[in-house]
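Task 17 of the worksheet. Students: predict the tertiary structure of the chain below and write it out as structure tokens. Keep your answer in the requested format; marks are given for formatting as well as content.
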Amino acid sequence: MKKTGRKSPGTLEDRGAVPAGTLEATPEEKRTILRARAKSLAHEPERKGEAEKYLEVLAFLLAHETYAIETVFIREVYPLTELTPLPCTPDYIFGIINIRGQILTIIDMKKFFDLPEKGITNLNRVIVVQEKDMELGILADEIIGIRNIPENALNPPLPTMTGIHAGYIKGVAGEGIILLDMERFLKDRQLIVNEEVGA
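Model answer:
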């Protein structure tokens, strides 16, 4: 039979599909390469898992301390205007305001947590929070802004935070940010104002 003169296809290495020398790797070298690849592939999902554990919060000042509320509970932030005091209510009930036709109770968190008074300024804001059918406003001395807090970085409340403090604090994050347990706070029935009082 007459030869055609065409060369044999050769190996994958001959055709450049595999870098030279790869096929001659020892078993130990191959295991090292596989371990490195496995570590590289596992690294990215690990970072994604950590990212999902961050809590987005709104940080604000109360008596020179930094507090925070998870943004999932916040409807809006509103200037403190046209406040109407309510007689015959606990001292932490600051009053009520009308926001676009909706009457909301405003809680003075400094009195609720027995913090030093600072007085009202033009920096005061009302943080409107809600959970299911409960909705009210929280008086803040000043808004700091949005922060992302690693959930696993939350520490238990300090031993000095006793009584009512410990019951409504979810944890303390870096930079001394005190995260409020807003779900528990909004389920507290003592925050509901009886509109018939003083009628």
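Marker's comment: The domain at 54-191 is CATH 2.40.50.180 (OB fold (Dihydrolipoamide Acetyltransferase, E2P)). The CA atoms of residues 74 and 129 lie 4 Å apart.
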